[in-house]
Specification:
alpha+beta; four-stranded mixed beta sheet; 7 helices; 4 strands
């Protein structure tokens, strides 16, 4: 199953996700249930678990925002490897088990964006595409990601845009 956090502004998402994980672990403990954040705790023919990140700027949410979404996607495409390294705590090794290009995941080696495409690295939901504004979904972060690292990577790439390479 899954759950969602937000909407949040800026790195506030990190605070909310860490607290929700704490609550998840405490509730599970009360019921004698074990929880793991590992993106693929059992090998096999399935998609694993991600921490998809819905992201927008004010410009993306306003009329004509679709252009700003595509501008952000272009920037994200140029920093794919840097993002993969930051999107799991083991530098991409955890996500390598999950991002296979099968089972509604993108390939860890290739960047791909699409409208309503669940196999894309970055997906624009169909209602946002039709409306011409809204948000995009980065489907690459692993379920055990550090949300501060994910926020950092997305903002640094799409807003600061200083050509970084960590």
């Amino acid at each position: 199953w899954e759950y969602q956090i937000g909407p949040c502004e800026g790195i506030e998402i990190g605070d909310h996700l860490w607290m929700s994980r704490f609550i998840l672990y405490r509730v599970a403990e009360e019921f004698g249930v074990s929880v793991t954040l590992d993106p693929k705790p059992v090998a096999g023919n399935w998609n694993g678990s991600g921490a998809h990140c819905n992201y927008s700027t004010q410009a993306m949410r306003e009329d004509g925002g679709l252009k700003h979404m595509y501008d952000a996607i272009e920037k994200l495409s140029k920093r794919h490897k840097e993002h993969i390294r930051l999107y799991d705590p083991n530098g991409g090794k955890d996500n390598a088990r999950r991002l296979t290009g099968k089972h509604e995941t993108s390939s860890i080696d290739n960047f791909f964006a699409g409208v309503a495409h669940r196999g894309a690295s970055i997906r624009i939901p169909r209602p946002c595409s039709v409306a011409g504004k809204g948000y995009l979904e980065d489907r690459r972060p692993s379920s055990n990601c550090d949300p501060y690292d994910v926020s950092y990577a997305i903002v640094r790439t799409t807003i600061i845009d200083d050509g970084w390479a960590d």
